[in-house]
Amino acid sequence: MQPARVRAVRLHGRSAVALALVSGLGLLAFSWPLFVQPGSGLAHRADAPWLFVVLLPLLLAVVLAEIGDGGMDAKAVALLGVLAAVGAALRPLGGGVAGFEPVFFLLVLAGRVLGRGFGFVLGSVTLFASALLTAGVGPWLPFQMLAAGWVGFFAGCLPRAAGWREVTMLSAYGGVAGLLYGLLLNLWLWPYAIGLDTGLSFVAGDPLTENLPRFVAFTLSTSLGFDIPRALLTAALVAVTARPVLLALRRTARRAVFDAQPRFEASRPS
Amino acid sequence: MSLRSGMTAALPRHLHPGAWWLWALGLATAASRTANPLLLALVLAVAGFVVMSRRTDSPWARAYGFYLKLGLLVIVIRVVFGAVFGAPLPGTVLAHLPEVGLPEWAAGVRLGGDVTVEMVMAAGYDGLQLATLLACIGAANALANPKRLLRAMPGALYEVGVAVVVALSFSPQLVTAVSRIRAARRLRGRPDRGLRGLRGVAMPVLQDALERSVELAAAMDSRGFGRDGSAPASTRRVSGVLTLTGLLGAAAGSYGLLDATSPALLGLPLLAVGCLLAVLGLVVGGRTASRSRYRPDPWAAAEWITAASGVAAAVAMIVTAVTDDSGLFPSTSPLVVPPLPLVPLVGVLIALLPAWLSPVAPAARTGAVRRDPAPERIEETV
User: Is A204 within a domain?
Assistant: First the structure.
C-alpha cells in the first residue's frame, strides 16, 4: 500500500526561495577553503572563518522564521517539539560509542514520513534543543543545525517506494547522509583544527585538485575512522527500526490530518 | 536609579543570559586577537574565576570544565599536526621523525622530518588561542541559563521557539516514560534490559510521545495558537521583499568575498547590507505578531556592567592590535620570552568585575527540600 504524501510543514514560494538561498550560502560557508582565491577578501585574514560563524546563525534565523510564518500549525509545532525531544534524548547515547550518532535514524524516518519542510526544521530544532540541554552552544552549532536540516530535507525528497524497497532505500540514504554529514562538519573544522600553515592546511588559490587531496588526507588522518562506522551503524539502525517507526509516524500523521485546510469566509448578509 | 541599581546587584536573581553571552563573546574576541600565552592564560583565569564565583548548581554549570578539556584536546591536536605535517622551521631540533614519501596526488604534503622546538611552540600558541576561545564559550554556557536565553528569541521565530520549548519541557517526561514502561514490563515478566528489552521499551515510549504530541496540539489549537491572519498583507509583502533582497545581497556579497577579481564594494559591504536587510525583514515580520511575555528578564545596571566589562576587554585588545601589536604576537622563531603589554592586561582584568558586581543567582528551589531526583520543573519558559 502506498501511503499518501504528507507535508506537515508547507514550503510556500517565499520560504522555498529563502531555503534555497540560505542553503547555497551555507554550502559556501562550509566549503570556502576549497574555492577561495588569493587576494580576495577572505584569503588574507586569519579570522576569515569567523565571518561565517557570525553570518550563519543570522541566515538560519531568517529561513526558520520564513518557514514558520504561515507554514506551521499547532500540530506541526507539537510534533516537532516532541520528536526533537526524542532526538535530543538519543544524542547523548552516541557519546559513549565512538562516533555513533543515533539521532540520524529519527531524522531520516521523520523526514520521509512528514515531508521535506518538516525534515529540515526537525533537523535544526533537534540539534538546537540538544545543545541547550547539554550546554553545547558554540560556533559549531549553526553548522550542525544546517547540516542536520539537510539530512532531514533530502530524506523527504526521496522517491516513492514501499515495503522492503523503501527500507533498503532509507537505510542506504541513512548511511550516505551520515557519512556526508561527517565530511561537511570536517570541512568546517579543517581551518580551525590544524591552522593555516601545515602541509594539510588549505592553500588559498590552489586549484581544487590540490586542495581536495589535502582535505582527504586531513580526513583520513583524523576522523574517517569514526565516520565510516557511524555511517554503517546509522544504516543498520534505520534498517532495523524502519518498519515499526514508520508505522507509528504514519499513524500519527494520519490522526493529525496535516493537509486539512480550514477556510474562513465573511458572512454574507442574507 | 542608584537605589534600583544597588537593589538589583544585592538581591539574588538571574542575570540576563544575553549579558553573560556578550561578556563571554567580548573575552573571546579579545582572545582571538592575540597569540601571547601570558594574555591567553590571563583570559582563561578571568573566565574561570567569574564562572567559579557566579555559577549555579544547575547541570549546565559544569560545562566550563568540559570545555577546558576540549581545549586541551585542541592543543594536543594542533601540536601533533604541527610536528608531523607542519612547515619546517629552523632551530633547536627536538626529535627526528622518519620522512615518508607520499604518492603523486598528495604532492606538497610533508610528512615527518625534523621537529624543532620552534615548530612545537608555534603550534602550541595557536592551539592555546583556540582553547581559550573555547573556554570563553564554555563560560557562557555555564553561566547563562539556556531556558531564559530562549525567552529572548525574536518574535519572528515564535513557532520554532515554541517547538524548542516543547522539546525542552518534554525531555524530562521522556525519562519518566521510560522508567514507567520498564516497570510495567518487569511486572509482566518481560525483559526490560538488553537488546530485546530495548525494542520493547523504545517503541512504547515513541508511541506514547507521538500520542502526547497530538493531545498537545489539540490543547494548543483550543487556546488559539497560531497567528495566521494577524498580519496585514502589505506588511507581510514588505517583510518578504526585505528578507529575500537581503538574502540575495548576502549571497552576492559572499561571492564577492571569495572572488579576487570582483570589486571591493561587492564583498564585505554588500554582505553587510544584505544581512541588515534580512534582519530588518525579520523585525518587520515579527512586529506584526504581538506577544505578551510572562515576567520578562530585566536589563538593569548589572547587565550593563557585565556586558560592558567584556566589551572593554575586546576594545583594549583591538586598540593594541591596531597601534602596536608586537606584544600580542610574540615571536616563536627565534623563540623569545613573551612580554606582558599593559593595555590588554588592564582590559582583560576589567572583565573580572562581574565576579563581584553581578547578582548571585538564587538557590534552586527544589534541591534543598527534596533529595530524590525529581523530574525537572520547567517554568517560566514561555
Answer: yes
Number of domains into which chain A is organized: 1
Nearest CB to A66: which of B59, B66, B243?
B243
State yes or no: pLDDT of B381 exceeds 60. no
Cα torsion at B60, B65, B68, B69 (round to 10°)? Answer: -110
Nearest CA in chain A to B153: A61
A46 CA: distance to closest CA in chain B (Å): 10
A163-215 pLDDT tens trace:
889 999 999 999 999 889 888 888 888 887 776 667 777 777 677 777 787 88
Distance of alpha carbon A36 from alpha carbon B261, whole angstroms? 12
Min Cα–Cα distance to chain A from B137, Å: 6
Beta bridge partners of B93: B116
The residue that leads in pLDDT, A24 or A73, is A24
Give the A:B interface size as CB pairs under 8 Å. Answer: 263
**What are the boundaries of each domain within chain B?**
7-151+299-357, 155-222, 233-287
B336 vs B140: CA distance, rounded Å: 33
pLDDT surpasses 70 at B373: no
Which residues in chain A are contacts of B82 at CB distance < 8 A? 194-195, 198
Most confidently predicted of A161-165, B85-89, B287-291, B376-380: A161-165
As to burial, measured by CB atoms within 10 angstroms (0-12 exposed, 13-18 middle, 19+ buried), residue A201 is buried
Over range A106-119, report the average pLDDT. 92
Q: Which three cell numbers stand for residue B300?
A: 538593569
- Return the residue in B160, B282, B332 with the most chain A beta carbons within 10 A, the one to mutate for interface testing: B160
The answer as to whether A4 is a domain residue is no
Q: Say which CATH number the domain at A246 has.
A: 1.10.1760.20
Q: Is A198 helix (H, G, I), strand (E, B) or coil?
A: strand
Is the preceding peptide bond at B334 cis, omega within 30 degrees of 0?
yes
Q: Which of B87, B130, B279 is nearest residue A192 as measured by Cβ atoms? A: B130
Is the pLDDT at B375 greater than 50? The verdict is: no
DSSP letter at B86 equals: B
| Alpha-carbon A72 to chain mean position | 19
DSSP-derived secondary structure letter, B105: G
Give pLDDT tens digits for A44-55: 555 667 788 888
What backbone torsions phi and psi does residue A266 show, to the nearest 5 degrees? -65, 135
Instruction: For residue A80, give its domain range.
Output: 13-256
pLDDT value for A170 = 94
Question: Which pLDDT score is estimated for A169?
Answer: 94
Q: Are A68 and B214 within 8 A, CB to CB? A: no
**Is residue A214 one of the residues assigned to a domain?**
yes
Cα separations (Å) of B97 from A77, B85, B100? Answer: 57, 11, 9
In a domain, residue A35? The reply is: yes
Residues of B in contact with A86 (CB under 8 A): 174, 205-206, 209
In the structure grid, which three cell numbers stand for residue B245, read together? 533582497
State the burial class of residue B238 (Cβ atoms within 10 Å of its Cβ: 0-12, 13-18, 19+).
middle
Cα distance from A241 to chain B (closest Cα, Å)? Answer: 9
